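Q: How would the C-alpha cells look for this protein?
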Amino acid sequence: MKPPRFSLVPQLDHSRRWVSFAQTLPGTLVIVALFACLLFLHSVSLWWLISLYLLAFSLWPGQRWPILLLSTLSFLLFGPVDIRWDRITNIFSEAGISWQITNTPEGSAFIGAAILFISFCIWLARRFSKQLQRPVLALTTFYLGLMVIASYAPLPQSVLAFMWAFITVLSPYFWYLCYSLKETRSPAPKPLYLQFGHYLPFWSPASIPYPKGASYLKKIEAKTTEQFAICRLKGLKLLIWALWLSIFALAINVIFYGYGEFLFGRLQFKSELGSIQLFFDGNYLKTLFTLPFETSLPRYEVAFRQAALGNPLPWYLNSFLTIAHFLYDLLYVAFTTHIIIATIRMCGFNALRNTYRPLASKSIAEFWNRYYYYFKELLVEFFFYPVFFRYFKKNPKLRMYAATMAAAFFGNFLFHFMRDIWFVVELGFFEAVAAFHTYFIYSFVLGNVIFLSQARLEKTSQQVAGPVSRFFAPVRVLGFYCLLTIFVDFRRESISDNIAFLMSLFPF
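A: Here is the predicted structure in C-alpha cell form.
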C-alpha cells in the first residue's frame, strides 16, 4: 500500500468517507463551520452572514432558488454592496436637490425603478420575441443613447440628475439583464422573480455575473444528495487553496514591500532592516524571524509615476517591478475569485474556476481563457457569437477576425467604459471616450494578437512541439501580457506616460 501523497489541499471530494459524512446533518454542520472559519481567515466582509446563508442552502437544498433570492435581497439591503450612493448624492447636490443617500435602504426607490425597468425589458423580449430579434443589441443601444442624452440634452438639471441616478444604479445590473434577455428564448427559463436572486448575488455583487446567467446555474445545479455533498467538498477544498494563495501574497508583500495585513487588518507584519515583526492593532508583539537579505522595493505605481515625470528608476528595477506587479495581479485575481467560486459551490452549483493555471498557458488565446474565464465568457456570449454566426460566412478568416475583435476589442472596451460610468458623469459621453484612449489602444492590440494567436495555433496544432518550444511558450505568452498591462489605464490624459514607462524597461 502506497503512503498517502502530501498535499497542501486535502482531496476531500475523492474520499468516500468524507462524501458519506457530508450527507449527514453533523457533516453538514461541520463543513459549514469549517467554511465559515476560512471565510473569517480570508477577512471576508460579513462572513458570518454569508455562513448563515450557506447553512440554509445546506439544510434545505430543495429550496435552493428561493433561498438564493432571499439571500441576495437581504445582502443588497444590509450587506456591503457598493452602489456608490455617495456619488449619486453628489449628483443631486450639484443639481440643487437636497437628497442625501448613504445606504441601499435609503436608495431603495432607485433599486425598485431598476427592477421595474428590468422586468419591463424581459417582458418586451418575451412578448415580442419575433419582432425583437436582438434584444441585447437594442438594450445596449438604448442605454448608450440614454448616456448621450444625459450628457448633452438641454434639460433641467433636476431631470438630468434623476437620469444619471437611474443610469448609474442600472449599470451594475446591465450584464445580468443581458443574460436574462438571452435566456428568454430558452424552452424552460426560471421564473423572473427567481432570476433576480442571481442579480448582484451575495457571493459576488459585482458587474461580472458569476457564473453567467440563471440557465447556466440551472445546468450546473447538484441534482442528488451525493452530488451536493461532493460539490460542497469541492468548495471547501478550493477555499483552502485560496487561503494558501493569499498567505503567499501576504509573504510577497512583507518580504519585498515591507508591509502586509491579515485578519481584517488587525494583524500587521512589517519588515524593518530584514526583521519580520508582528503587530496587533498597531502594537508590537514579537519579531518572527530575520531574513538573510534586506529589501525595500518601491511600488509599481511609484515607478510608473517616476518614469512619467521623466525621472525613471533603473531599468532593471522597473523591469522587476513590472513582472512582480503582473504576477501579483494574477495571484490576487486567483485567490479572490476562488473565494467566489467556492461559495457558489457551497450553494450547490458546481461552477468552474474563474482562474485556472494561467502560468501554464501555451498561447495568448489560451491565457485569455485561463486568466478570467467568466469575463471571457461574457464577451463570447454577447459579442463573439453574434458576429461569428451572422457575418462574413463566406470568408472564414475575416469571420474569425471580426468576431475576435468584436469580443476582445469592442466588447472589452465597452464593458469597462460602462462599468466606470462616473467618468461619463464627470466628463460627458464623448469626452469620456477620448479619456479612455489608452484602454482603447490596449483592447485593439489585444484583439489583434489574440486573433493571430488563434491562427498560429491552427497551423501548429498538428505539429509536435519540442521541449525547448514547450518551455518558452508560456514565457512568450506571459511576457506579452506583462508588457501589455502597462497600457491597462481606463482614463489617462496622455498615453505618452505609458510609453515612457515602457521605454524605461530597457537599457537604452
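The mean pLDDT is 89.

The chain has 22 helices and four strands.

Upvote if useful.
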